Automatic annotation (TrEMBL), chains A, B:
Keyword Transcription among record annotations: yes
CDD domains xrefs: CAP_ED
Domain Cyclic nucleotide-binding: 30-117
Residue stretches in coiled coil: none
Key words of the record: Activator, DNA-binding, Transcription, Transcription regulation
Domain of life, source organism: Bacteria
UniProt GO BP: regulation of DNA-templated transcription
Keyword Transcription regulation: yes
Protein name per UniProt: XRE family transcriptional regulator
Single GO MF annotation: DNA binding
Alphabetized InterPro entries for the sequence: cNMP-bd_dom, cNMP-bd_dom_sf, HTH_CRP, RmlC-like_jellyroll, WH_DNA-bd_sf
Length: 220, 220
DNA sequence: ACAATAATGTGAGATATCTCATATTTTTAA
DNA sequence: TTAAAAATATGAGATATCTCACATTATTGT
């Protein structure tokens, strides 16, 4: 991670105004920082003391289980807060966050924690963010319980395909969908067999959009 | 649902002071209300316009999937907020909440919504509540992905047993744990076979506390 | 350019979990 | 009090998903 200054800093501040998140002047407490692709923003098990607001980029939220399994809990896409729960709740150990692309964030030091925690403007925004997060996790949780991979994968292919082509890394997606690598490949093969997608060098091409949507929509 | 007045009302207000949740006088906006056992506090798919704070009681948070499966998402135990996400986010349809026992709540009408949404004291408490909710759901989600029923059931038996006896309704718990009734019974039978619990008329008695803890603790 | 590492792909056999059918017991409501 | 509804129980066969072993093909760092 490195901190941007001068022109780079002011350009981001202009492009992503954040003043209206707070009812006090946040600038003295704020840095613009950049994480390179693959860098860890939070280490699993650490006690972070910085609140980040991601402006540009994409990251993965991870946790490792006692049995060694790793869950890719979700993809984080700008804009969003990171480390907000630790701000509210002192000394809460955190999950791991690793960037997928170059990522630009505002970092806000906890030195203005007192100010933040009495700022209704900021707190209201945080409530909205947290409410949405809770709602999303609940949705994911219940969907995972109620539907087999066939449906969840169909939904995920719809979501992540670009120009009708799905080309995510299997190793990553099986962690995200919470199934084994083997099983993911089975179901992909099944989609090929059913002519829903076609495997080419460029990726899996969606050929039966309708059927895919049908499988996905059973979820909601 | 009925609203308590007079002596009943003031007794609850005394027993569960709530003034320090707000920086303005909430009393004019507040009712004390009681739901009978089995009553629905929120109907699934409705657009609630009341914020509740549960003082006493226990309820179940439900959702029904398109495929007809019902998920018992979680048990709600006092104290907690209900309808808070709908307060923040207009017109968000909600999940169903049904009481398990007689339940006493404060209800706060949305007529003071404007006041609530600029009240840092209240918002901060809401942030804490929502943050915890998000954290819990995330934990549940990842655990369900990473462990078979054997471990999750062991953890649940530990949690819900009273005086070493587990006696929840199977029909409910299988929805809660997200497995079929049949499978729940299989794993319970397996616990009996392994002499971890013993089935008697009074319920399933825990006889190998250590082994149960071992299975449960693999989760975390 | 090459060795190390990561990602892909596949088979085989095990296990976790589901669906459905059906019988019995308990609880609930009229 | 009795009939209906809910909860418990169990078998049998299917399906979803896992683990492990191993081979092949990219990707990456030096």
């Amino acid at each position: 991670m490195h901190i941007l200054t001068g022109r780079a800093r002011s350009d981001y501040l202009k492009k992503y105004p954040i003043d209206d998140f707070f009812s006090f002047d946040i600038q003295p407490y704020l840095e613009v920082c950049q994480f390179d692709k693959g860098e860890w923003i939070f280490q699993e098990g650490s006690f972070p003391d910085t609140l980040y607001y991601m402006l540009e980029g994409k990251a993965k939220l991870y946790m490792t289980h006692k049995n060694g399994k790793v869950s890719l809990i979700e993809y984080l896409k700008a804009p969003l807060f990171m480390g907000e729960i630790e701000l509210l709740n002192e000394a809460r150990y955190t999950k791991g966050i690793q960037t997928v692309t170059k990522t630009i964030c505002y970092s806000i030091t906890q030195s203005c924690k007192e100010k933040l925690l009495v700022d209704a403007l900021f707190l209201r925004r945080l409530c909205l963010f947290l409410g949405e997060k809770a709602t999303n996790m609940t949705a994911k949780y219940t969907q995972n319980q109620a539907y087999p991979l066939e449906n969840r994968l169909a939904a995920f292919i719809q979501l992540s395909a670009e120009q009708g082509i799905y080309k995510e890394k299997h190793t990553e997606i099986c962690e995200y969908l919470g199934v084994s690598y083997r099983h993911l490949l089975y179901v992909l093969a099944q989609f090929c067999e059913e002519q829903i997608v076609e495997k080419r060098k460029t990726g899996y091409h969606i050929i039966d959009k309708k059927r895919l949507a049908q499988l996905a929509q059973e979820i909601q």
